[in-house]
Amino acid sequence: MARYETVIGLEVHVELKTGTKIFCPSSTAFGGDPNTHVCPVCLGLPGVLPVFNKKVLEYAIRVGLALNCKIAGFSKFDRKNYYYPDLPKNYQISQYDLPLAEHGHLNIDIDGQVKRIGITRVHMEEDAGKLVHQGSTGVASYSLVDYNRTGVPLVEIVSEPDIRSPEEARAYLEKLKAIIQYTGVSDCKMEEGSLRCDANISLRPAGSDKLGTKTEIKNMNSFKALQRALQYEVERQTEILEEGGQVVQETRTWDEARGVTLSMRSKEQAHDYRYFPDPDLVPLVIDRRWVEEIRAGLPELPDQRKARYVKEYGIPEYDASVITASKDLADYFEQCLEGYSNAKAVSNWVMGDLSRLLNAHDIDIARCRIRPAQLTGMLKMMDGGTISGKIAKMVFEEMFETGKDPEQIVKEKGLVQISDEGAIASVVDEVLAANPKVADDFRSGKEKALGFLVGQVMKATRGKANPEMVNRIIRERLR
Description:
Blueprint: E1 4-15, H1 54-66, E2 70-71, E3 74-75, E4 78-81, E5 91-94, E6 101-110, E7 113-126, E8 130-134, E9 142-146, E10 153-159, H2 166-183, E11 195-205, E12 215-220, H3 223-242, E13 250-255, E14 260-266, E15 276-277, E16 284-285, H4 288-296, H5 302-313, H6 317-324, H7 327-337, H8 343-360, H9 372-383, H10 389-402, H11 406-413, H12 421-434, H13 436-443, H14 448-460, H15 467-477
Parallel strand pairs: 12-13
Antiparallel strand pairs: 1-10, 1-11, 2-6, 3-16, 4-5, 4-15, 6-7, 7-10, 8-9, 11-12, 13-14
């Protein structure tokens, strides 16, 4: 594979969370009974005219600015003509030669190095409907069409072919999703189709500057699917080229269950869509002062927040990168710090036990039962000696499962740390008497023996004994 260089470009579609659709007043709410969030405009009935939703333009400008793009002063909508059952007008209103924003970039971290990925363009368009395939034998016998999604506003973000591996593609999509979430224009719920990705991939001889024949992989809705599909496609195209064949320019789909890409159709060119300016929509003349007002209103973005965490809270750059990769997680972290000043202790729990449990249960921080005040309450109990670190992990698991306060859990389960020196000394004496050889090993300089003795004391006290006190008393007894 070193004989070939991988070239990848991504086209990402993001649904904007406006209350109504891009050209009509129908609801954009996810779900609902099929064909209930529709009207004559988004259904493309005869005699209707689109009316542009200004909030869509504001949100799209916000995306363009967040991605360091140049916002056009003059832009227009075009008709993209193609025939498919989920497109009721037989054309899609999109943008072609005069998009809203161009020439942007974002930075990704790869193996400790920062790499810049160019953004070719950001343009607005309307979403299509959804086909629901029916059949009980594994092969659809018929299909139904739900037009609820038709006309939902989209921005399409097209990258330059600057991505050189499936891993870089995943890092790009993760960073792009984070930036979009920070701007507040979309929830980016990939499982609901709010963020979808098409990937263009080709191989070329190493050292060549000529692009190879590309294939497009359509509609991937998870980071894992994107990476796996691209890895498979690299292997497939490499095998074709090694055998002296030619890669066919086509559109392919990813079969998650089988772990393969499958051919869907030959790949269209721009002229196949017969673009022309939409005669029902006037061009957009965008006031530069309004653009600057939107720029001034941009929130703190991931890279800015990361730099602030390192400077203001003194946490390592790695910790700051992990936490700020999700706006909700970063918000949670800051809410914890409102009631507890040790940022490193909070980041350890957020990146460690909390992230582990969220991943194990496949939920995001927004659905987590542990509120920031509960986490900081538990940390204060540790600082005050009420519970040990070992007990804290038990309490944390219980908080995650039940949402109960740490004080309530400690009281109900009798988990208060034993800090009475006399009580601990009594258990230590029993353990030393039961393990004379290990005690002699420690006296002879075998430091590891101490760990065994401490473990026996903690076992006898069900993890409740103050570990620092246990260590000190054992050492005193064995001098």
